[in-house]
Design a protein that fits this description.
Helix content is about 45%, strand content about 20%. The protein is of the alpha/beta class and about 425 residues long. Helix 12 packs across helix 13.
Amino acid sequence: IGDEFIPDPDCNPEVPKQVTFSDISAAAFNIKSGVSKTPCTKSQQLSHKYGVDLYFKKEYLQVTGSFKERGARFALSRLTDDEKRCGVIAASAGNHALALCYHGKMLDIPVTVVMPVFAPLMKIQMCRSYGATVLLKGNNIGKAKDYAMHLSRERKLKYINGYDAPDILAGQGTIGLEILEQVPDTDVVLVPVGGGGMIAGVAVALKTLKPSVKVYGIEAETCPSFTRAYQAGHVITEMAGSTLADGLAVPTVGCNSLATAKGLIDKMVTVDEGSIALSILRLIELEKAVVEGAGGVCLAAILSDKLPELGGKKVVAILSGGNIDTTVLGRAIERGLAVDGRLIRIEVVVSDRPGGIAELSTRIAQAGGSIKDIFHERAWISTDVFSVRVKVVAETRDREHVLELEKTLKERYTD
């Protein structure tokens, strides 16, 4: 496949398309037989803990585990008979691919997805299980997209952009309609932002039906591409750093999304990795909800005190997806425990005489800490030859407990 750049006719930055409320209404009518209407329930514990009347829109409960099904279903339902026969193609490393493959199978439309070579194995297998053709090309999503655009021209396949095709935006906007139906007196809606498709559709739906509702977009700190583009007023390309919210790491946001969202977003907020990890942990523990990093950013913004103005307000946070890799989930839980002060690392220099390390572990136990890991080194220690540096990873109750433990150890050990 050649080097020539093939533009996507549906997503032209020179003439962006704005999605209207009637497009979203049409989408709601078209997808209701094929897409779940997800619950939007109040979180009693988190509302109490953070002083916010907090509701969660649980999009991770869709069949393929994310909100992407709405746009995919609507985009597929809008194809001409010829397009349905030939099939569609998309470049995606995750949820858009899953949604398209599943609904393609339901509607009997052939689907080809081009995934970057690093795409999670689980998602590749899932797409194949829905009968789709999966091609692994390129070491990033941009390369995968170039390949998909060439194939779309070669094989006469309709290309469906996962966060910028107008039908996709209209489909995602149906979340906004459901939120106002389920929680009519909402004050603020928090929306995760990657390419911008969901916030564009949701903002149009909310602001049309209830202009007083505030719409806040939440991005990962390592890739604030929508914040920058929204401020600049045009699409710009950001460097995407690695993030737990990998679904939001979109270097270049959608031009239609940006044009549609213009003037409708009240605030953009970025969150750091520690608060995303803590958010994933809180949702598992208190809500019994397993969400991916992208789905956890809205709660992360509340946890990290980025939105003090929400106190006492009725807030809906969209939990956009739950397709988190099992190994990443393990890491996120550990990172969350560390941020929460429930997993700590201590280094202490103790006597290398018999009983030195035993005494240390006894003191930690008496202070209520539970040792997970312990290792010691003699060769690289600069104090006397009869000392040993011990590194301990221990479980603690909370931040206060950590301070108590530290105080106890400092009373006995100087280093």
